[in-house]
């Protein structure tokens, strides 16, 4: 029973990443998951529930991954923090999962049932950014974390749109140098 549910969620995430949220139909998901249509509707009676569960599952996995990275940052110096940050950026999902994440976050702006998972996702990314900024001795890391997350999110969109992965580490470095400078009173 759990295996069927898992296959449905994975198939939904893959379909979203490859074709967008609009491609998520019950028939398409059932076919991609290799399950009967009735089995899909048994586990997920509505599209909103299917999308919410798909994003929640992905967010739970991301929070686990992010928590591991944040734990590695505790007590390390700025030089090692830069290395760990670049390692974390390199390990970000690439391909359909990354596209699906962006699609689901955009969908959350239109669907309050999906929004809760998107909010948890952003909070986890803010927490990781705070850990990175703290390890780098950046003043007021909690206030600056959302800006770092927004930059990385924007760079992910740019990378997907252009196919050019360069510039992420350099853009983050530029932002961090700016974050280290105290604001004029």
Throw out a few tags for this protein.
9 helices; 185 residues; elongated; mainly alpha
Explain what the structure shows.
The protein has 185 residues and is mainly alpha-helical. The protein has helices at 2-19, 26-33, 37-43, 47-73, 78-90, 96-108, 112-135, 141-162, 168-180. α1 (2-19) packs across α2, α2 packs across α3 (37-43) and α7 packs across α8 (141-162). The longest helix has 27 residues, at 47-73. The chain is elongated, with a radius of gyration of 18 Å. The N and C termini lie far apart (60 Å).
SSE order, as H and E?
A: HHHHHHHHH
**Which ranges are low-confidence, i.e. pLDDT below 50, for 5 or more consecutive residues?**
none
Number of strands: 0
User: Quick check: average pLDDT?
Assistant: 83
Shape: elongated
Number of helices: 9
Largest sheet: none
Radius of gyration computed on alpha carbons: 18 Å
Structural class: mainly alpha
Percent of residues in helices comes to over 70%
Measured by DSSP, the beta-strand proportion falls in under 5%
Our measurement of the CA-to-CA distance between the termini, rounded to an integer number of angstroms, reads: 60 Å
